[in-house]
Design goal:
152 residues; mainly alpha; 0% strand; PLC-beta_C_sf; coiled coil; Flagellar FliJ protein
């Protein structure tokens, strides 16, 4: 009788350990799958952020060019409608001066916008790298081969 109880106790203990190990393996697999899914979602979100930034920068560039074109046209119109300028040579000289001044200002504005855009892109890339590093650090225990289950 004693051996029968001992045998059943051993079988029960073995079955419980196997069940615990299987539950642990299933949970580990589930967590690994969740991390893979989260990784894909993170990549998609970062890609979308990059695209949104590119669209915003493109729109800002377009707005700047439109504003510059409008200013240039307004300045040209103002010179052409100026009643104080009697001679064509004087009008041409003023147009040339105005165009040179506007060109210099417009180039500076575009350069400033390009630097601002580059800074934004670098900040976004840095933030994405930090997010990826943190994600990889959090996911590493579930993807490394040295991961061991906690024993009871």
């Amino acid at each position: 009788m004693k051996s029968l109880v001992l045998t059943q106790t051993n079988e029960w203990s073995s079955m419980m350990r196997r069940h615990e190990r299987e539950c642990h393996d299933l949970r580990r697999f589930q967590i690994k799958e969740e991390f893979e899914c989260l990784g894909k979602l993170l990549q998609d979100a970062q890609k979308q952020q990059k695209n949104m930034l590119k669209l915003r920068l493109k729109a800002e560039n377009k707005d700047l060019k439109q504003a510059q074109t409008k200013k240039n046209m307004d300045d040209t119109r103002a010179i052409q409608q100026d009643k104080n300028i009697k001679k064509k040579v004087e009008r041409d000289r003023r147009m040339k001066e105005m165009n040179e001044k506007n060109l210099k200002v417009f180039c500076e504005e575009r350069k400033r916008l390009a630097m601002k855009a580059q800074k934004r892109e670098e900040q976004l890339i840095k933030r994405h790298e930090e997010q990826n590093g943190e994600f990889e650090k959090d996911a590493e225990p579930f993807f490394s081969k040295t991961f061991t289950r906690k024993s009871s």
